[in-house]
Amino acid sequence: MSTHTQNVPKGKWKFKVPSAFTILFIVLILAVIGTWLIPSGSYSKLKYNSANKSFVVTNPHGEKSTLPATKETLDNLKVSIAIDQFTEGKIRKPISVPDTYERLESAPKSLLDIPEAMVHGTIQAADIMVFIFVLGGMIGVVNETGSFNAGLIALTKRTKGREFLLIFFVSIFMILGGTSCGLEEEAVAFYPILCPIFIALGYDSIISVGAIFLAGSLGTTYSTINPFAVVIASSAAGIPFTEGIVWRVIGLVAGSTVLIGYLYWYAKKIKKDPSFSYTYEDREDFHKRYETDLSHSDKYPFTLKRKIILSMFGIAFPLMVYGVIMWGWWFPQMAGSFLMIVIVMMFIAGLPEERVLNAFMKGASSLVPVSLIIGLARAVNLVMEQGLISDTILYYASNMVSGMSSYTFIIALLFIFFLLGFIVPSSSGLAVLSMPIIAPLADTAGIDRSIIVSAYNWGQYAMLYLAPTGLVLATLQMLGMKYSHWFKFVWPIVLYTLGSGALMLCIQVALVS
After folding, report:
1. Cα–Cα distance measured from residue 144 to residue 355, given in angstroms and rounded to the nearest whole number
2. I need a surface site. Which of 24, 229, 294, 435 has the fewest CB within 10 A?
């Protein structure tokens, strides 16, 4: 009998928070039910065909027509996006064409469609899954060489008494990565490096997720030059991304200060009293996943070979970020770079081939649950797309705010983007679907379009701090953290983002519009 069972009095039922898989499966069932309750409908979609340099418009009934890729075509379609955004490949996803929404014959999904949606969702996530597997394999190899243990022993000796500095610098790095290039999905690579360090310094899994996921997401919330969020949203709204950048910088500075202050408060609390930790009951599982043996420092001397391997491991991540920003890398290229580094590590390590390969496979297999959760989250979006309810929700949302006064309009829009963030958790996906429809409404309300872009950023990401359809559950699965524990920590940041966002939007309306 487990200790947990023994501690529960007989006859008393104790609620157990569902696992990440169960939560997503429940959301998937709700999405299926939604296809029966919400009317089906669709906007026409516009996509640039680079092969013959033309636009392809697909109407709600699936009929396609080819139009010349000119500014005149975009003007006729009431699409306020510069032609170069399409021809230069900056906008690759189909965008919604304004005033083309049509109700369609209902396309409800059934419970029998769920397994197939899960499979297709996993197929769609194949690139990030391979990246995660290669990452896990690389971690397994580095761990097998003893480089992690040796490096952590050296680090803990040098940071004694200044432990929070590491949290501060990691948070700043993630915030800057988020605001400049949307560093989020790639951040799964950092947990295996930083979690053992945070454990060694006396911190918990909340600090790990807060300094990596939450800091990166906050940076993306206040995107300044992020091509996957504010740049593509501004383009879809028909304005330069530099419009409104001052307000986003103000939001970034204020938000970063609040988050780092919050992390400092929490870190100080758990250093003083470890039982204060929101995840105290799960600390053993977290430590089992990431804790390394630092008790025998003589067993892991920091030799030159281990320094080289650990340096290569560390270089892999700045290289990944640089590749994304400068060379347009995505998951296949990132996985390829990691794999090349792993191959070089294998030769440097000088360990038997079978031992190294077993370490790689063990490391890759440890991240299978994380990969499957990402695929399952994609299945939710697939069900709503195939049930033709995503565009209907967007259509009714845009009608809801039409005709409102400027202040009521912008506040309502902030919360509409908050809800749409659950349905379309992709920043670029929501931008190209919603901006061509909602941006023209700003003109009728007398609001500058840059303010709409800010509402999109702040509203959607306030939801993505906690939406199960985004990266949250995959992140929590990596650390063995319950969703309820994360919610307890993150809800003040969600409220801050919505509250400060509403205030700054109203100030912008008063000063800019």
Report:
1. 8
2. 294
Strands of 221-346 (E only): list them. none
Q: Would you say the pTM of this structure is higher than 0.90?
A: no
By DSSP bridging, strand 95-96 and strand 45-49 are: antiparallel
Q: Across the strands, what pairs with 65?
A: 57
Phi, psi at 43, each rounded to 5°: -90, 160
Helical axes 191-200 vs 126-144, angle rounded to 10°: 50
Phi, psi of 96 (to 5 degrees): -75, 135
Q: Are 461 and 221 in contact (CB under 8 A)?
A: yes
d(CA 300, CA 320): 29
Residue 102 φ then ψ, to 5°: -135, 140
What local confidence, expressed as pLDDT, does residue 177 receive? Answer: 79
**Start-to-end Cα distance in the chain:** 66
pLDDT band at 497 (very low <50, low <70, confident <90, very high): very high
Angle of CA points 299, 302, 307, to nearest 5°: 140
Task: Please give the residue that has the higher pLDDT: either 279 or 296.
Answer: 279
Question: By the 8 A CB rule, do 14 and 27 touch?
Answer: no
Own/partner pairs, 357-365, CB within 8 angstroms, 24+ separation: 359/140, 359/141, 359/143, 359/144, 360/137, 360/138, 360/140, 360/141, 361/137, 361/140, 362/140, 363/136, 363/137, 363/138, 363/139, 363/140, 363/141, 363/143, 364/133, 364/134, 364/136, 364/137, 364/140, 365/136
Residue labelled with tokens 């990431």: 290
For residues 29-44, give the mean pLDDT: 91
- DSSP state at residue 52: T
